[in-house]
Design a protein that fits this description.
The structure is a single chain. By secondary structure, the protein is an alpha+beta fold. 33% of the residues lie in helices and 20% in strands. The protein has 8 helices and 9 strands. Strands 1, 2, 3, 4 and 5 form a 5-stranded mixed sheet that branches. A 4-stranded mixed sheet has the order 7-6-9-8, sandwiched between helices. α2 crosses α6. The longest helix is centred in the first third of the chain and has 16 residues.
Length: 244
């Protein structure tokens, strides 16, 4: 069995459905905990925007539900610490040899079409592996328009009128993929993981967005509310996870 496709256990499910997070940042910025993400963006053949965001969200979900985050697994303590702090993600770009080197750092890679993304075990910003830390955070824009039509299964809806870079969007849909587990039973989460965490990323029109906000208030959808550290105002709802 591929180690990136192991069976999800109850501890990983409980972590994602019960964490609160939101603690104050430590005084030393180097002590901030974050999940690094790397997006594969080749210069001559950049991926489609929808495919890249889909791969990014799937990579986060697969990592968070990985067997290595369970019990005495090597990723359990880092995941517990991160979920108890702020859920921060930092997206970077890689191409060519950079992307190949990034595969050697502990994490999980997901693909969609020609797009690839890798999510990494959260840790101190000051301890980033140099193969990841040297990668650029900016320059993640890629071509393509998100579809607006819904589909079956997990759908991550980006809000209208939010001017976010692809890197920022990748972090937001990654968080939404985590929150989507709260709409599932433990058995459903296991089946979702075993199927490779299939999901769709879509752009919500204004009318649908209002309906999704209402669904979030009822508890039948779940929204990502950004802390406002970069690009957008604090408290902005950026993505809403729904299961059609």
């Amino acid at each position: 069995m591929n180690p990136d496709e192991q069976h999800v256990g109850i501890e990983a499910y409980r972590r994602l459905t019960r964490y609160v997070g939101g603690h104050e940042d430590p005084p030393d910025p180097a002590d901030v905990l974050a999940m690094q993400m790397v997006l594969r963006i080749e210069k001559t053949s950049p991926p489609d925007r929808t495919d890249l965001l889909t791969a990014a969200a799937r990579a986060v979900a697969l990592l968070c539900l990985d067997e290595r985050t369970e019990g005495e697994g090597p990723w359990a303590a880092p995941m517990d610490a991160w979920c108890d702090a702020r859920i921060r993600k930092i997206a970077r770009r890689a191409r060519g040899a950079q992307w190949e080197a990034a595969q050697q750092v502990w994490g999980v890679t997901a693909t969609e079409g020609d797009a690839g993304a890798r999510a990494y075990v959260p840790g101190r910003v000051g301890d980033i592996d140099r193969r990841i830390g040297k990668l650029q955070i900016g320059g993640t824009d890629v071509p393509g328009e998100l579809q607006t039509a819904p589909g079956p299964g997990v759908v991550l809806w980006l809000g209208p009128d939010l001017n976010m870079t692809v890197g920022k969007c990748a972090a937001q849909v990654g968080h939404a993929a985590m929150l989507a587990v709260r709409l599932m039973s433990a058995g459903d989460a296991t089946r979702w993981h075993d199927d490779g965490c299939p999901l769709m990323v879509r752009q919500a029109a204004t009318g649908r967005w209002h309906a999704l906000l209402e669904a979030d208030a009822r508890g039948t959808a779940v929204a990502v509310r950004d802390a406002g550290f970069t690009e957008i105002a604090p408290g902005s709802v950026t993505v809403i996870a729904d299961i059609g």
